[in-house]
Amino acid sequence: MESELKAIAIGALVLTGAACANNAQMQVPARLQPGADEVLAMVVPARGVQIYECRARQGAAAGREWAFVAPEAELFDLRGNPVGRHGAGPYWQAVDGSKVLGTVKERADAPVAGAIPWLLLAARPTGPEGSFSKVSSIQRLNTVGGVAPSAECTGDAPLRVAYTADYYFFTQR
Asked: Structurally, how many domains does the chain consist of?
């Protein structure tokens, strides 16, 4: 029964992301808009985790805190079919082998509490020609979850926090 409930919850998160994909452009802050010479090529919902490690706190304050390490997610088309993976770098790799690396250009707080920020990333293709090889910018929108706890951490075990997001892939006109 517990595994069935988990599957239902995960399915609901994926459907929520896909449903939001249709109206997210209306709510996107201006600083997260891609260049005027770019057009939307595809929307890729993601489901996975944000990975954090417990590290010494930076700056004057003593103690330990959760530090972001990497994303790890499966990518889907709007029908729910797997299309690739998202991981450390960050990178997005399609099942056809095409791959892009991203660099954060802008960020904005998510409009939903407890969700990782929305982003605009510059994309640089690496790898063979394919469905992701022409991507020039990526927006991360409609995020749910993924935020590390605000409490001080102890121990050395990494923390994996579930998240969903819609990635909007743009190409040059």
From this structure: 1
String of DSSP letters for 63-111: SEEEEEEEEEEEEE-TTS-EEEEEETTTEEEETTS-EEEEEEEEEE--S
Task: Report strand pairing: 82-87 vs 91-94.
Answer: antiparallel
Q: Is residue 51 part of a domain?
A: yes
**Using one digit for the tens of pLDDT, what is the confidence trace for 147-167?**
999 888 888 889 999 999 999
The residue-averaged pLDDT of 115-134 equals 97
Structural domain boundaries, residue 131:
2-28+39-172
Half-sphere CA count of 143, side-chain side, radius 13 A? 27
CB within 8 A of 39, min separation 6: which ones?
170, 171, 172, 173
Give this prediction's pTM: 0.84
